[in-house]
């Protein structure tokens, strides 16, 4: 029928309502603002109502839009729950498993060690979602999330299951030539995180060890610091599973021991019975216990 609702239009409507405008919605959906606008206009034409107030500060829902948002969001949640549960059907571990994690854990812990999972479960495929931002598991941005968290930080809501894998321990490292040139580590140049990580307790701790002396390098990710340290630029704080395994770096003797970070594996409750997700959960738990210096294995 000509006036029948198109689910594609509804998806665009949800994105605009959540983002507050055409451009944020386009970024989430991977399309252009004009395409988003066209779908929203088409939906309003089909329904014969105005769903948004177009203002300079963004798109605001009208009363009709708010009512529709509640109904469509509920349908979206139900659809996503069915899709998540579908991944657990059948006896074999097969299908795509999306794992979200940070750059450090993704590049240096998971990616180099996925061959064992592939050998154990040849019918499964893995997608790594590597980002400093936490994936939204309820919207299927990932099936599982491996997260390093500040001690005692809140991890989950009631819709999620979280397994504590222990702690990732850190140490201070430098290139051998730098160690030889600075018998006292307190005189070494060092590197740490930039102002976007001002909330990061370990970065603040490191600056404090140097009496507030400014670092030679600030960077918004650990990969840049790691690469600079390998070239001999300065001292760096790294997870032990990374620093201990690198032949171009040495632990800096006589330094205080940084606090570790809590490591959690999180997934949606709808995936509790999913064979593919539980297989990956067990594998990551084994991997962490073997390589990351976890204080205790996951359940």
UniProtKB/TrEMBL annotation:
Keyword Signal: no
Top-rank lineage group of the source organism: Bacteria
Residue ranges constituting the HTH lysR-type domain according to the UniProt record: 5-62
Pfam families the record matches: HTH_1, LysR_substrate
PROSITE patterns for this protein: HTH_LYSR
Keywords per UniProt: DNA-binding, Transcription, Transcription regulation
Family (UniProt): Belongs to the LysR transcriptional regulatory family.
Xref: PANTHER family: HTH-TYPE TRANSCRIPTIONAL REGULATOR, TRANSCRIPTIONAL REGULATORY PROTEIN
Protein name per UniProt: LysR family transcriptional regulator
Originating species: Jeongeupia chitinilytica
Taxonomic path: Bacteria, Pseudomonadati, Pseudomonadota, Betaproteobacteria, Neisseriales
